[in-house]
Design brief:
mainly beta, ten-stranded parallel sheet, 23-stranded mixed sheet, 3 helices, 1010 residues
Length: 1010
């Protein structure tokens, strides 16, 4: 059949087997190629379609124009270069090309409903001439689940039909648009096209628009266009608009376009790329604008555009995590529905509604733009600047600072019962041409008579028998919306909390302005709580103005709490007036204005410790401030000799002291600031060290690092539940006494005992009345106000009990005079029974083991004096680190109370002789048994009879015997073994204050420090 001519005229033909012909001529015909085809010439005239379902290799193109190639299989051309000239290429098969040119009215598209979309990969240049296009408009899918009148959604949301028939939510990825546009019930959305090319010369069009098939149908959404090119140039357009309805339907949402490029300097990205929403008809809304993502592959700079050409309708829903991206919203509505993190947002004629958390370092909203905040907004430094735009706040968070300038306004959504709650830790500044304005954001009241005024703090005017509502709300904490009149809203609600409010502009919660012959709504509420209030602005919560022949609205409610407002006119610049009625109708009553000034003490700036060396000059300034806008007075007590202090009369003072040789020590100086009624102060420590001595890590001379206030004496008795602490004071310095019932150590818990004491230069005393008579121990320390007690410089009260008619080992539990005609003897005698009949007469006795192994016995006479066996008054002093036996002869227990400083600083030594010793090493601290006795270098050869031993009585009266171990191997060597349980003594076994222990020394005499 090689010589046969194939002529198809308005006919369809399918090639199912190999076919060879001389010529092919097609006119308005369809050729489906499922097998090989060989020909010499091929002419295709307008309207003809070649559906290629098998691999084909062409030397040249079919002649003619206006035909269509549907590529479903590989197509080979010389050099892999394709030219689409005056015909249509339907691409359903993806392959790579060296170059592609679309010219002379040529078009590239894909099959309708093919969700894989059109993919075009060109290693060289893709050229789309002026009158040519890549067009997948209307190539997406329909959506039978959408009401026929509603618009389809994709990058922008389609317009709703009504409250019950709404469009779908936006979907897809703005950076990688891979979905077709959402359709309507009867309309396909825009298709999907992805172009990858080294260069794109675009003078024609790349289109993925939505469509609308007819009236009473919603438009479909624009589709997806993804360009990934090296160089982009030309005068063409890239477009994925939503479809517009010709009548009776809503517009479709815009699609999504993403363009990645190395260079686009010769292409107008600003005006030639768009994703507008389609228009609605017959009062149905337009679609929302789609998204345009641009990324410079070389620099990494990325932008996302949303532009809806100023058409008001549906919104664009966004959620995006792109910390480096610039988001530009122009003439569009955007709703943040997912978490948003971008580098910058720029808005022009835009409304951005934030329904999810957002982080926006740079927020630049232009004139006629509004940011509606319904979720947390993160800003650098937690600061907000509203310059020339409107911030509608429906979410409460705390800001570091807020500034409103250049016509900017802060408000809240109309009818929001929570109102505007704005909390600012720092300054809130409202410039002269800016405002916080919730006027007309309050409630409505459609049931009121037409000419009746709304009520809140003041009652609205009444029209004959048509009464206005009663007043309501709080005078001191106003947080209600102002009452509306018929169909018109009252003033909104503002609660401002800030460190400072500088108000040169307007702070308003007025009622709205109604139409003719309608009553005016009431003013709203303003609640201000600030430290300082200044400026020349006004605060208003007035009834709305009356247009004509109607009643006025009642005034609102204003409450202002402040510490300083001397630079704001609270009389002239604050108004909650009701509005005047017109045409003989009644005016609204004035609302309420509540003011409360707080009185605060002046505050000293922190001074801190000062350090110098003998002979140095010490000079520094102190500064005080008063929140009540007065100049505080400054004074000082405890000045060192030759030191000078001067109050300079402006809230500052100067201290100067030329120290002399011999001025070594720590000086306490009390600086006080006062407003005449209240004061605050700081006690400053001035350290004067020896010349040339080093400083420690805290910057204090090393020799003074352990300095602390010293208790001079502590008195308490067994029969008294009180303890009295005495110490020397400096004139005018404040002191506090603290106590703790915890063991001495870093974890001590402290409580203040009694009131703060002011020193008079002599000895001061403070009594702790809460000690009680049963408390076993309590420790005391004196500190300066605000300081935390430390574990040095402690004094204690420690009690020990002895049973009736028995023997008890004890030791002095604190550092004290150990003489029996001194403190130790008096503490023991206070609770024991004496007798003048001498030893054996029933008097209580003491038994002391001496170094030579003999016992020394003392008895108590009827006068409470300890005597030797021969009756002489005992002048014996118990050696350091020793204990003794108390022999109670009377049939009643006794309790001893010891007072004194806490020792165990390693400066005392106890001599331990060979044989038996009675040790009492604790001077207020619990000592770890193993570590403390290690200082005695205990000995052992593994046998009990040759090892050091420790014997003591437990709380239940049982005896314990411990043996030091060596020669047994691990884990015994170097440890003490309890011979009653054969368990090793743990490291947390302690030697207690007031307890005494028999120590059997097997080796030579030794010493132990404690």
């Amino acid at each position: 059949m090689s010589g046969i001519s194939l002529i198809l005229n308005r006919a369809n033909m399918t090639i199912t087997g190999a076919l060879t012909v001389a010529d092919i001529t097609m006119t308005n015909a369809v050729l489906v190629q499922n097998a090989s085809l060989t020909y010499t010439t091929w002419t295709m005239l307008s309207g003809s379609i070649w559906s290629q379902n098998v691999a084909v290799s062409l030397v040249g193109y079919p002649q003619g124009g206006g035909w269509t190639l549907v590529q479903n299989a590989p197509l080979t051309l010389p050099g892999d270069a394709l030219v689409v000239s005056n015909w249509t290429w339907v691409v359903n098969y993806h392959q790579a090309w060296t170059s592609v040119t679309v010219t002379n009215g040529g078009k590239i598209t894909n099959t309708e409903g093919d969700t894989n979309g059109l993919q075009l990969t060109v290693s060289g240049t893709l050229t789309v001439a002026t009158n040519s296009s890549i067009d997948v408009s209307g190539r997406g899918n329909t959506d039978g689940g959408v009401n026929r009148y509603a618009g389809g959604s994709y990058g922008g949301r389609g317009g709703n039909c009504d409250a019950s028939n709404v469009s779908r939510s936006c979907f897809g990825d703005c950076r990688q648009p891979l979905s077709c546009g959402g359709g309507g019930e009867l309309s396909c959305g825009g298709g999907r096209v992805k172009v990858t090319a080294e260069a794109l010369q675009l003078d024609g069009q790349i289109l993925a628009n939505g469509i609308c098939p007819g009236i009473y149908m919603g438009g479909s959404a624009g589709g997806a266009i993804w360009l990934d090119v090296g160089t982009l140039r030309g005068g063409g357009v890239v477009q994925a608009d939503g479809g517009s309805s010709p009548g009776g339907g809503a517009g479709g949402g815009g699609g999504r376009i993403a363009i990645y490029y190395d260079s686009a300097n010769e292409f107008n990205l600003t005006n030639a790329v768009r994703t507008w929403g389609g228009l609605g008809k017959n009062n149905l809304p337009a679609g929302g604008g789609g998204t345009i993502y641009l990324k410079n592959k070389g620099t990494g700079a990325e932008q996302l555009w949303v532009n809806n050409a100023g058409v008001s309708g549906a919104d664009t829903e966004l959620g995006l995590q792109a910390p480096g991206l610039l988001l530009l919203v122009n003439n569009a509505l955007v709703t943040v529905t997912g978490a948003l993190t971008v580098a910058s947002i720029s808005g022009t004629n835009a409304v951005i509604t934030q329904d999810a958390a957002a982080s926006v370092p740079n927020l630049v909203m232009g004139t006629n733009s509004t940011w509606v905040q319904n979720a947390e907004l993160t800003r650098p430094g937690n600061a907000m600047a509203v310059s020339g735009w409107t911030w509608s706040v429906n979410y409460s968070q705390t800001w570091a600072s807020v500034t409103v300038t250049n016509g900017g306004k802060i408000t809240h959504p109309a009818g929001n019962a929570n109102g505007l709650i704005l909390t600012v830790d720092g300054p809130l500044n409202v410039a002269a041409n800016a405002s916080i304005d919730v006027s007309g954001c309050g409630g409505t009241n459609g049931s009121l008579g037409q000419r009746v005024g709304g009520s809140y703090g003041g009652r609205g005017g009444q029209d004959g028998t048509n009464e206005s509502p009663a007043v309501y709300g709080s005078l001191t904490e106003p947080m209600d919306l102002g009452g509306g009149s018929r169909d018109y809203r009252g003033g909104g609600c503002v609660r401002l909390t800030a460190n400072s409010l500088h108000l040169d502009g307007l702070l308003k919660a007025n009622g709205s302005a109604p139409g003719a012959n309608i009553g005016s709504p009431a003013g709203g509420s303003v609640w201000i709580d600030v430290v300082s209030l200044d400026g020349e602005g006004t605060i208003e919560a007035q009834g709305g103005p009356v247009a004509s022949s109607a009643c006025g609205g009642g005034g609102g409610r204003i409450a202002v709490y402040y510490t300083c407002a001397t630079r704001f006119d609270l009389n002239e610049n604050v108004s909650a007036a009701g509005s005047a009625g017109q045409g003989g109708y009644e005016s609204g009553s004035d609302g309420t204005i509540y003011r409360s000034e707080r009185s605060e003490p002046p505050v000293l700036d922190p001074i801190g410790q000062k350090v110098a060396f003998e002979g140095n000059l010490i000079a520094f300034q102190i500064t005080a401030s008063d929140l009540n806008c007065t100049i505080p007075l400054l004074s000082v007590t405890g000045l060192p000799v030759a030191a000078v202090f001067e109050d300079q009369g402006n809230g500052t003072g100067s201290f100067s002291w030329q120290t002399q040789e011999g001025a070594y020590g720590v000086y306490l100086v009390r600086f006080v600031t006062s407003d005449g009624a209240r004061s605050s102060e700081e006690i400053v420590k001035i350290y004067v060290g020896h010349i040339g001595e080093p400083l420690n890590e805290a910057g204090i001379p090393e020799s003074l690092a352990s300095w602390g206030l010293q208790i001079k004496d502590l008195e308490s008795s067994t029969s008294s539940g009180n303890a009295t602490v005495a110490w020397d004071t400096a004139q005018g310095i404040l002191y506090e006494v603290y106590y703790s019932d915890s063991p001495v150590g870093a974890g001590m818990s402290w409580q203040k005992a009694g009131a703060t004491v002011e020193g008079d230069g002599g000895e001061c005393q403070a009594t702790d009345t809460g000690l009680g008579t049963d408390n076993a121990r309590r420790y005391y320390q004196v500190v300066l106000p605000g300081e935390t007690p430390r574990t040095n410089n402690l004094w204690g009260v420690i009690r020990r009990d002895v049973p009736a008619a028995g023997y008890t080992l004890i030791s002095p539990p604190l550092r004290m005079d150990r003489r029996f005609d001194g403190e130790l003897g008096a503490a023991l005698a206070d609770s024991l029974q004496g007798n003048d009949g001498g030893l054996g007469s029933g008097a209580d006795e003491l038994h002391i083991l001496q170094d030579n192994g003999s016992w020394r016995t003392l008895y108590l006479d009827a006068s409470g004096i300890w005597r030797e066996v021969n009756g002489a008054v005992s002048e014996y002093e118990l050696p350091e680190g020793r204990g003794l036996w108390v022999a109670r002869k009377v049939g009643a227990p006794a309790r001893f109370t010891f007072t004194g400083p806490v020792g165990n600083d390693g400066t005392r030594t106890n001599r331990i002789v060979t044989g038996w010793n009675i040790l009492g090493l604790s001077e207020g601290k619990e000592l770890p048994l193993k570590a403390t006795l290690a200082g005695a270098n205990p000995v052992s050869d593994g046998a009990q009879e040759d090892s050091d031993q420790l014997v003591f009585c437990t709380a239940n009266g049982a005896w314990r015997r411990l043996m030091y171990i060596q020669g047994w191997g691990a884990p015994y060597d170097g440890n003490w073994l309890d011979l009653s349980t054969f368990q090793l003594v743990t490291t947390n076994e302690m030697l207690e204050p007031g307890a005494a222990y028999y120590y059997l020394r097997q080796g030579s005499a030794t010493e132990i420090q404690f």
